[in-house]
Write a structure and sequence with these properties.
The chain is α+β, with helices and mostly antiparallel strands. The chain has two domains: 3-117, Beta-Lactamase; 130-273, Reverse transcriptase/Diguanylate cyclase domain (Alpha-Beta Plaits). Helix content is 36%, strand content 26%. It starts with a helix and ends with a strand. 28% of the residues are buried.
Length: 274
């Protein structure tokens, strides 16, 4: 390695991003230690590889057999999926440039690992759309889902019975256990999409316009709930179900809410459909 190459390498090694110097066919001539660490290679192992070795095969369509300056968007970082030595995939942002040195041209690539950024974005998305305790959709998310429906469906409103008594008798930790366990029951049922509407109330989209069938689905949920946490008497709830055709989401919620209160007034722990 010449003194110039040694200096270039030392400068490259100051970067926390991966830096590659390739020929215009994408063969790796030099890279910094950050690149080796990012992609899981030992020192020197990446030299001679092609950039196609660092990309999943199904994503290689955008690669060029020989790069020219006009092939690259040199002013921006582009989201990419890259592949580590062990085959695991991870999100990156890549900025590539063509640089001339004497009579030769080189492809220079700067790669940022966006794994942590992606995790943060995923976490923010989850927090804005899901209830952490029950792991169901939150109020905004379930209403958004209902509003996006193009075909008729059935809607259920659920309110857990005597929930204040549970909290007062056994404490809020047991109350949270009830909510979490009920969330699991709803989440595992493939015939529905559920969201926590607030407190101990839940909205449930039942994937059928058939009211009788939808009532049976919710009665089966009720049976499962009654068997859960039997040490505390099981999970009891009152439920109202209706078919949503021409009703607005607000009108459908209002109707199921009234039916749910009818179920409570009629003895609780039951499903009323209309």
């Amino acid at each position: 390695m010449s003194k110039t190459q040694e200096l270039i390498f030392k400068i490259m090694d100051l970067s926390i991003d991966a830096i590659f110097i390739d020929d215009t066919s994408g063969n790796i001539l030099m890279c910094n230690h950050a690149a080796e660490k990012m992609f899981g290679y030992n020192e020197g192992e990446m030299i001679g590889l092609n950039i196609s070795d660092l990309i999943p095969k199904e994503d290689c369509d955008y690669l060029q057999p020989k790069y020219k300056k006009e092939d690259l968007l040199e002013e921006i970082y582009i989201p990419r999926i890259n592949k580590r030595k062990d085959g695991t995939l991870f999100p990156t942002e890549v900025n590539s440039k063509i640089v001339s040195a004497g009579e030769s041209e080189y492809l220079i690539a700067f790669v940022r690992d966006m794994t942590e950024d992606s995790k943060i974005k995923d976490r923010l998305y989850y927090l804005s759309n899901y209830d952490e305790l029950t792991e169901l959709r939150n109020r905004r998310s379930i209403i958004s889902l209902l509003s996006s429906q193009k075909e008729s469906y059935c809607l259920a409103m659920i309110d857990m019975d005597s929930f204040k008594h549970i909290n007062d008798t056994y404490g809020h930790m047991v109350g949270d256990l009830f909510l979490k366990s009920f969330g699991f029951i709803l989440k595992e049922n493939k015939e529905i999409e559920a969201g926590r509407f607030g407190g101990e109330e839940f909205l449930v989209l039942i994937k059928t316009p058939n009211l009788k069938y939808a009532k049976r689905v919710m009665e089966n949920v009720l049976l499962d709930a009654n068997k859960t946490l039997s040490l505390y008497g099981g999970i009891h709830f009152s439920c109202g179900v209706t078919t949503v055709n021409d009703l607005s989401v607000d009108a459908a919620i209002s109707k199921t809410d009234k039916l749910m209160y009818q179920a409570k007034a009629s003895g609780k722990n039951q499903v009323i459909a209309e």
